[in-house]
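Dear colleagues,

As part of the handover before I leave the project, I'm documenting each prediction I ran so the next person doesn't have to rerun anything. This entry is a single chain, and its sequence is reproduced below.
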Amino acid sequence: TVSSQDSPANGPRGLFVGDIVTNLQDCPVYSVEDWNSCLGDISVKSQVGYCISSATLQQLSFPARVYRRLDGTVECCSNNSLTDICFSYSNNLDSHLYACLPARKVVEASKVCRTNMDCQKDIVPSFCVTPSLENQTRLIRVKHPPHIDMLYVGHPMHLQYTVSLSSFVPRQNFLSIDLPVVIETFCKYLISLSGALAVINAVPCFALDGQWILNSFLEATLSSLIVEKQNRELVGFLILLAGSALLAANVALGLWMVTAR
């Protein structure tokens, strides 16, 4: 991984160069395509919740004032808190309950869920608590072992735009993680340059292969129409003159545009 300087993934518990990302929430990541696909699914689907026992919920939660944000979502934690997040949950009596909980303790020791039914596999009574965040904002758990999981709060696309990943993992420490990208880019430029030179070389212009291609073409097509060889050579000369002038004009225009910037 490589994160840009202003990336929200930066920080002491964020992503570092060379980290291997294995999961986004419960979505496995094996390649760059998986990373983009997982982020797309997370941004489209609703925020997942986390299973937490009722005893742990009572132990971690503390009284907080509940109020609504401008977009209609509910907040129950202090705006200055960097570790606590407002979670919503429901029980048999009330479907709109809120608790301010430490995000890392809730996420790391829990499995993801959508409803309370997803958490009722154990005998211990549990709830599915869902982060109460602003619209389009998600709480995303990024696994990159052996480091501690990164918890990201924000729009999923910000991660996609500010974090660069590679599908390749270097087997030796002295190999750069950017080596496959550098080789791929070099090959693309080499193919593009070779193709461009081949096209330019085929232009009917003096001293290029296009001159001999044009002469062969005229001999094959105009021999019956223009019997005199001198006349055919004159036609070829005029075409070569026009092609050379056009090529020179294009080169001059390109140099002028580069130097004028």
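The two ends are 35 Å apart (CA to CA). Residues 202-260 form one domain.

All the best with the project,
I.
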